[in-house]
Amino acid sequence: MNKNVILKNLLNSGETLIMPDAYDPISAKLIENTGFKAIQCSGYSFSIAAGYKREIDVSLEENIEWTRRIVESVDVPVMADAEDGYGDTAEVINTMIRFINVGVAGVNLEDQIPDGKDKVPWLMLI
Fold first, then answer.
1. For residue 14, how many C-alpha atoms fall within 13 Å in the half-sphere facing its CB?
2. pLDDT single digits (tens) 66-90
3. What CATH code is carried by the domain that includes residue 105?
4. Taking the CB of residue 87, how many other CB atoms lie within 10 A of it?
5. How many domains are contained in the chain?
6. Exposure b/e, 50-75, CB count within 10 A at least 16 = b
7. Which of 1, 42, 70, 77 is a Cys-bridge partner for 7, taking CB atoms 3.0 to 4.6 Å apart?
8. Considering the entire predicted model, what is its pTM?
């Protein structure tokens, strides 16, 4: 069964789905080996792991690469953090395609003001 179908079934099961945050392949493997059924990626955690001062400093290229490494390291579904989509409407579509191509099962997309205020999360299942 595809990981996106597994994630959709988990989200629609009526049970609470706890998805710990992975910021690299080692943390993802630890989460999986502990028995969690899915993994969440976080731009904020990526920024901390990279030593950045702000989450907004994580580029799309870095986010895609770090997410790809996590996806390839585990057998459970991975939910990506696409931040605000990294641009205008056309770029958001490109961002979603790039995350799909690295094998994520779902994507969080936020409607946010660049200074980090007023976030409204959106969820996209693939």
1. 0
2. 999 999 999 999 999 999 899 888 8
3. 3.20.20.60
4. 12
5. 1
6. eebeebeebebeebbebbbebbebbe
7. 77
8. 0.87
Q: Rg for the chain (alpha carbons), in Å?
A: 14
For residue 33, the enclosing domain spans 3-11+19-125
Residue 61's beta-bridge partner residues? none
pLDDT digits (tens, 9 = 90+) for 26-62: 999 999 999 999 999 999 999 999 999 999 899 999 9
**One-letter amino acid identity for 105?**
A
CB neighbour list of residue 55: distance below 8 Å, 6 or more residues apart: 43, 44, 46, 47, 83, 116
Give yes or no for a contact between 99 and 82, defined as CB atoms under 8 angstroms apart. yes
The answer to whether residues 98 and 69 touch, using CB atoms and an 8 Å cutoff, is no
Residue 80, classed as helix, strand or coil, is strand
User: How far does the chain reach from its first CA to its final CA, in angstroms?
Assistant: 13
Which amino acid does the sequence have at 77?
P
